[in-house]
Amino acid sequence: MIGTDIIGRTVRVDCPAKTNLTLYVGAPRAEWGGRHELDTIYCAISVCDTVTATAKAPGTGFSLSIEGAHLGDLASSGSDMRRNHAVLALFAIAKAAGRDPDVGLTITKRIPVGAGLGGGSADAAATLLAVNRLWELDWPLERLSDIAATLGADMPFCLFGGYARGTGFGERLEILAPDGEQARELAAQGFRGHVLVGAYQAQLSTPEVYAAFDHLGTDPAARNHLQRAAISLHPRSGQAIDAAAAAGASHAFLSGSGPSVVAFAPDNPAVRAITDVWKRERLVDRIIVATAPAAPSVSVTQ
Ligand SMILES: C[C@](O)(CO)[C@H](O)COP(=O)(O)OP(=O)(O)OC[C@H]1O[C@@H](n2ccc(N)nc2=O)[C@H](O)[C@@H]1O
Ligand SMILES: Nc1ncnc2c1ncn2[C@@H]1O[C@H](COP(=O)(O)OP(=O)(O)OP(=O)(O)O)[C@@H](O)[C@H]1O
Asked: 6-179: which CATH architecture?
């Protein structure tokens, strides 16, 4: 918890979850620590975690407080604060800036944990954005993105939001301009507007899903090459995808490494039909209603 050594102002960042509209997975590469080559279209969705960063007295170090109704394995006593993605991001930007990490962080979690929605990456990105403002570094997003890429594949995208193409192990980004041709094409295909997220109590470990992918391969017709592997580990996700498609979703698929399911709905009747079938047949544990695309927001609150 934050103690009395808090001084100065607070910066608040609301950072959205990510999903992958397409996720093509290639071979693992030794130079990337065994991570796989990817070609993906990222999309930010308006389920946001809030991170606040407040200056602390010199030499007092960092603090972290996490709140939220669904904290998954972050709530367990074994969850090590120093390995939290937000804290790793704080250490990384402090090192790059040549400063001590004397910052109080709070995270209000709304993005389901271990869910394929990039929640830890969103918190890390939010921390970089918050500390950049708190310390008045004014570094461009590209410089923050270089730091983020050292921490995780999804983290660079979470700094930008919107739509982007990711290559390399996911960290090389081509941002798709909101009014550009590719963004308009995605919108025309139904990848904007209402999104329902089917969330689960269960978590899936990203490395385990990639390992299952190495073993099982993919369904070449799937937009998400990890879908078959994740469904083999969590079959309810597959049932929820099928039911959403039958209930009128324009697109329904596994989010990233799962187990969450994302369903784009063309209109309110489709939102209701998907919600009804998911609830009636208990295909998901929780439904979060959101919109896409979304973007992070930064504000100074004190
Ligand atoms: C599934 C996705 O969320 C899709 O965007 C990402 O590929 C995973 O992104 P992430 O969780 O930020 O990934 P990282 O923290 O960099 O890596 C976690 C683990 O996922 C696996 N991993 C990740 C990215 C990648 N291109 N190939 C991989 O095989 C590796 O086992 C790695 O140790
Ligand atoms: N700030 C954080 N928020 C969520 N998880 C965190 C955080 N810091 C560390 N973690 C750990 O990271 C693991 C993955 O959590 P996260 O919610 O980022 O999963 P994910 O959405 O499946 O990730 P991705 O789709 O990027 O692979 C969890 O086991 C969790 O304990």
From this structure: 2-Layer Sandwich (3.30)
